[in-house]
Amino acid sequence: MPYKILAINPGSTSTKIGLYHGTTEIFARNINHSAEDIAKIPDITDQLEYRLEKINAFMAAQDVKATDLAAVVGRGGLLKPMASGTYRVNTAMLNDLKNRRYGVHASNLGAILADLIARQGSCLSYIVDPVVVDELAPVARWTGRPELERKSIFHALNQKAVAKKYAKSLNRSYGELNLIVAHLGGGISVGCHSHGRVIDVNNALDGEGPFSPERAGTLPAGQFAAMVLDNKLDHNDIAKLLAGKGGLVAHLGTNDTREVERRIREGDKMAADVYDAMIYGIAKSIAAAAVPVWGKVDGIILTGGIAHARILTEKLKEYVGFLAPVIVLAGENELQALAEGAYRVLTGQETAKEYYGEAVKALSLV
Ligand SMILES: Nc1ncnc2c1ncn2[C@@H]1O[C@H](COP(=O)(O)OP(=O)(O)OP(=O)(O)O)[C@@H](O)[C@H]1O
Ligand SMILES: CCCC(=O)O
C-alpha cells in the first residue's frame, strides 16, 4: 500500500488540502473561508481552531481517517532563515510560529495544523521549502543602511517546484540551469535560480519588488516615511499598507485580476493604466533578475494564479522575451510539492532536516 499523505496549504482566505497516495493526487480541494468568518477572527494565529474544525469536517466527509495517514505536511511559514528541504515539525518550530517570533503570515499555520492532525493519527508531520528559504548570495544581502540587511522571503515552495518541473521537461537537472521564476499571485516574487540556488529574490512581504494584487512593492522610502509620520501610523497600519491593502487593492479596490481585466474590456482607463504599471514593474524585476547570472538565462517561468491571465503574460513576453524563452506554468503546484517533499523523506530518498530555534543557535556559538 503506498503511503497516504495529507498536504495542507493555508492561505489568507482559504485552506487548500490534498490527499496523496505516494505522490499521486487522490483529491485536492480549496476550503474557502468567508470574509464574514475571517472578519470575526482577524488575527491569523487565532484562526487555528476554526481552520482545524473545517479540515476535520472535510476529512470526515471524504472518509479520510488521520490514523490511515503516514504523514501530514504543511506549508512552512515565517521562521528563522533556513536551507531548502523537508523539515520535521518539532517543538522549536512550533514555539517560534505560535509566538510569531519572525512575523505573521497565513503559512505560519501550516506546521501547526500538520502537527495537530498528525497527533490525531500518531503519524509524522513535516514542512517543505518554507517561505524563509535563504540562498541569497552575499552580495545580494546589502542595503545602503548598515542597520538593514535584505531578507529572503518568497514563494520558495512553488518557485522551486516549477523550476524543477521545467528542468525535467528539458531532461536537464535543476542544478544545471539558470532560471528566472516569477511567482505571480496575491503577492509577487521574482527569483534568480542559479544552478539550483535562489541567489537573489525580492522580499515579497516587506516592500520590495513590483506591486502585486495585494502588496505595495518597492515604495519611495522618503515619501513613505513622511506618510507614516504625518498620519501617525502604527506597526499594524504599516504592515497592512505594504501587504494586504497595497497594489491593485489600493488602486482599484480588488485583488482579482479577472475583475481588473473585465473592467479593462469595458473601457475603464484607470484599470488599464494600473494593470499596465503592474506588468511594467514585473518585467523590470525579471530583467533585473538576469543580472546575477550575467544575462545567461536558460528560461523565464511565469507561474502563480495571475499567470492564467493572457493579457498579462503576452505583455510580459513582449517586454522580456529578448532575454530568454518565456514559459507559462500557470497556477501553483504547492500541494503536490508538499506531498513530494514528504514522500522523499518517507521513502528514504532524502533525510528530514531539523529546525533549531535561537536557544540552540546561541549554545552552538559558545
Ligand atoms: N484564470 C485566471 N485568470 C486571471 N487571473 C487569475 C485566474 N485565476 C486566478 N487569477 C488571479 O490570480 C491571483 C491569485 O493568485 P494565487 O491563487 O496564486 O494567489 P494566492 O495563493 O492567494 O497568493 P500567493 O500566490 O501570493 O500565495 C488573483 O489576483 C486572481 O484573480
Ligand atoms: C510567500 C511570502 C510572500 C507573500 O505572501 O507575498
Automatic annotation (TrEMBL):
GO terms for molecular function: acetate kinase activity; ATP binding; butyrate kinase activity. It is found in: Cytoplasm. SUPFAM superfamilies: Actin-like ATPase domain. It catalyses: butanoate + ATP = butanoyl phosphate + ADP. This is Probable butyrate kinase. Keywords: ATP-binding, Cytoplasm, Kinase, Nucleotide-binding, Transferase. InterPro entries: Aliphatic_acid_kin_short-chain, Aliphatic_acid_kinase_CS, ATPase_NBD, Butyrate_kin. Coiled coil: none annotated. Transmembrane segments: none annotated. GO terms for biological process: acetate metabolic process. Belongs to the acetokinase family. GO terms for cellular component: cytoplasm. It is an enzyme of class 2 (transferase). Pfam families: Acetate_kinase. PROSITE patterns: ACETATE_KINASE_1, ACETATE_KINASE_2. The gene is buk2. Its EC number is 2.7.2.7.
